[in-house]
Amino acid sequence: MRAPLLPALALIGFLLALGGCATRPVNGRLDHAGSKAGYRFDTRPARENASDTMVVLAFSGGGTRAAAFSFGVLEELRRTEFAGSGGGRTRLLDEVDVITGVSGGSFTALAFALHGERLFDEYERRFLKRDIQGELIGRFLSPRNWVSLASDGWGRSETAAELYDEVLFDGATFGDLLQRPGPLVTASATDISTGSRLAFSQSEFDLICSDLTTVPLSRAAAASSAVPVVLSPVTINNYGGSCGYREPVWVRAIADPQHRARPAGRVMQRMKEMQAFQDSTNRPYLHLVDGGVSDNLGMRAVLETMESWEASRGLRRSTQLDRIRRLVVIVVNSLSRPRTNWDLSERPPSDLAILVKAAGVPIDRYSYEAVELLKDMMARWDAARRQGESPAPGAGGLPPSANAPNVEVFAVDVSFEAHPDPAEREYLNELPTSFVLPDEAVDRLRAAAGLILRHSPDFERLLRTAGAASQPETTAKP
User: Fold this and answer.
1) Host H or E run for residue 186
2) 0.85 exceeded by the pTM?
3) How far apart are the first and last CA of the chain?
4) Residue 36 has what DSSP assignment?
5) Handedness of CA 79, 97, 171, 111 (dihedral sign)
6) Are 238 and 194 in contact (CB under 8 A)?
7) Residue 213 to residues 160, 197, 203, 278, 423: CA-CA distances in angstroms?
């Protein structure tokens, strides 16, 4: 018995030793940072949509639950007509300018950027109603992947990226999105060393002097959904400080102590993070995990941008944002709040249950605060717009804003708590965060997203203002 065992053990040892040969994909270096190239908002192909209206979608994390819920919003926007810039009518979906995605929501965002209209025919089969979680576990346990998984240059998230590429992204990189029509789509991850957000857009990759066009979409999705411990971090090379990157003029103006506008706190914090990314000497590698760790709603970039507009008239002029008169932000929040029976027992919950809950509570609290900050900013801008000048200090409990843009803001909250049916709310809140759900759950999530969006007061106000009309529902019936 011992003789046949020795060659087998020797073979396993040899394969494990070879593990060091498995290497991750390496993101390309950027020779010169500039604003006229790469996948960014300003380089998108020209679109014939309403130039005075900007529509932003923020897709939260939450596994397949988030992917299905955000897809339901896309389906509803596809069914809703909007008064187009040429006097005719177009779908509200075609007016979307930016989509931010985090974790599970990043799959829907990136897949829509790649597949466009085809996604509505394929997404259910290719991703939503597929046991992605089971396939991941199968690959992790397969002997053919042991060599790679044992390597220092590989990890579970790289294996996951391979699967995502096969089932959804078809080998596409961000370079393949450059000439595709549609909105700018970004996925966000978290730099685990600092907790800073890093979005997969060229304007952010300029900070690390890296060419985003070389990065596979599947790897961005893997980084954005790399739940700590469950999946390994996605490691990328940092070349920051080597491509002549300079902060935009408006950023330097805000940092100037003589700047008279209200201090833009989030923007200032982001500036510090930007500077830290440029230190490639001491930080040659960045290890990225789930974007939900730093921003589970994909809202931080939206809030920072709005605060930048408010703080800098120069930014609005230089980016032609002064022409915008209507800003629509649709926050698609698939945060669930499953009930526990802990308070019915004298015995406290287990250590594992506490660990899971403790990891989620700060994220949930920040998600709530992000939505409230958006609503506060909307109220402040609206007060300034109605009065023709900034509100008096303390008016309505809001801080003064001398630079508030003349923009009407629609903050649309699409979340489980907004569902009008208590029974359906309870059902949705009990759905787990995983990459597999029953087909019925996927259908009910999509239907719920459309219903909640249609019944949102701000969405109804937008439809009245823009003369939009919702078409009969044709898909995703519960």
Assistant:
1) strand 184-191
2) no
3) 59
4) T
5) negative
6) no
7) 20, 19, 12, 19, 46
Contact 150, 16 (CB under 8 A): yes
Backbone angles phi, psi at 408, to 5 degrees: -90, 125
* Distance between CA atoms of residues 460 and 227, nearest Å: 36
Residue 372's Cβ-side half-sphere holds a number of Cα atoms within 13 Å equal to: 7
Task: Retrieve residue 338's tokens.
Answer: 């499953």
Measured in degrees and rounded to the nearest 5, phi and psi for residue 439 equal -55, -40
Give bridge partners of residue 330 from the DSSP assignment: 57, 412
Question: Which run of H or E residues covers position 252?
Answer: helix 249-255
Query: Under a CB-based contact definition with an 8 Å cutoff, are residues 336 and 428 in contact?
Result: yes
CA dihedral 443, 444, 445, 451 (to 10 degrees): 120
Angle at 77 between CA 72 and CA 82, to 5 degrees: 170
Task: Report yes or no: 399 and 380 within 8 Å, Cβ to Cβ.
Answer: yes
Partners of 470 in the beta sheet? 80
The 10s digit of each residue's pLDDT in 345-387 is: 767 776 555 555 444 444 555 556 677 777 777 777 777 667 6
Amino acid at 148: S
Query: What three-state secondary structure class fits 247?
Result: coil
pLDDT of 68-119, one tens digit each? 999 999 999 999 987 655 667 788 999 999 999 999 999 999 999 999 999 9
For the beta sheet containing 89-91, the strands, ordered from the edge strand earlier in sequence to the opposite edge, are 89-91, 80-83, 469-470
Considering only CA atoms, which of 282, 273, 283 is closest in space to residue 198? 273
DSSP code per residue over 380-437? HHHHHHHHTSPPPTTGGG----TT--S-EEEEEEEEGGG-S-HHHHHHHHT--SSS--
